[in-house]
């Protein structure tokens, strides 16, 4: 298994982990369950680690696809640049989750406030990493890339005739 395979496999972890963890944390806040909040924090930490791995394997994945016919270098660069923002947000989420874990284990009165802040960070992180995934998908998935999908242009023109 090379870096490209690892990149393609691991990129889904931060996307699904950030939204799933957010929903678990929302539930934990709602029912006032420290165990549920702890589970959400672990999901966020794993997602953060996954984002780091995805970012580190991105260069290897780029080298694999950059010479394939139909792959546009600008699309790769856009994905790569946006991935940095997603990585930073997920690192912040992971570190905040470590703080949340520490405060929860210590039974701190700040536990609920920190959980709400982490929930907010998780939804921002989800938006950033989902956009990064979408941009990455455009590199090789013509069905979501209107530039390389002639049907998208045809469908737009057909809609104008109605």
Number of strands: 0
Regions with little confidence, pLDDT below 50 for 5+ residues? 148-160
What is the structural class? mainly alpha
Number of helices: 6
Tertiary shape = elongated
Strand content: under 5%
Largest sheet: none
Domains (count): 1
> What is the chain-wise order of helices and strands?
HHHHHH
Overall radius of gyration? 19 Å
Whole-number average pLDDT? 88
N- and C-termini, Cα separation: 50 Å
Which bin fits the share of residues in helices? over 70%
Give your account of this protein's structure.
- By secondary structure, the protein is mainly α.
- It has one domain (3-160).
- 83% of the residues lie in helices and 0% in strands.
- It has six helices and no strands.
- α2 packs antiparallel against α3 (34-65) and α2 packs antiparallel against α5 (111-140).
- The chain is elongated and about 55 Å long.
- The chain starts with a helix and ends with a helix.
């Amino acid at each position: 298994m090379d870096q490209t395979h690892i990149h393609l496999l691991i990129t889904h972890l931060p996307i699904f982990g950030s939204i799933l963890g957010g929903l678990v944390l929302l539930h934990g806040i709602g029912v006032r369950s420290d165990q549920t909040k702890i589970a959400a924090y672990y999901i966020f930490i794993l997602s953060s680690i996954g984002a780091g791995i995805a970012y580190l394997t991105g260069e290897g994945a780029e080298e694999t696809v950059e010479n394939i016919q139909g792959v546009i270098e600008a699309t790769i660069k856009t994905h790569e640049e946006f991935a940095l923002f997603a990585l930073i947000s997920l690192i912040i989420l992971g570190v905040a989750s470590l703080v949340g874990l520490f405060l929860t284990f210590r039974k701190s009165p700040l536990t609920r406030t920190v959980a709400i802040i982490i929930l907010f960070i998780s939804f921002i992180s989800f938006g950033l990493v989902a956009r990064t995934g979408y941009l990455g998908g455009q590199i090789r998935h013509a069905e979501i890339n209107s530039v390389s999908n002639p049907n998208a242009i045809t469908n737009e023109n057909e809609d104008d005739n109605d």
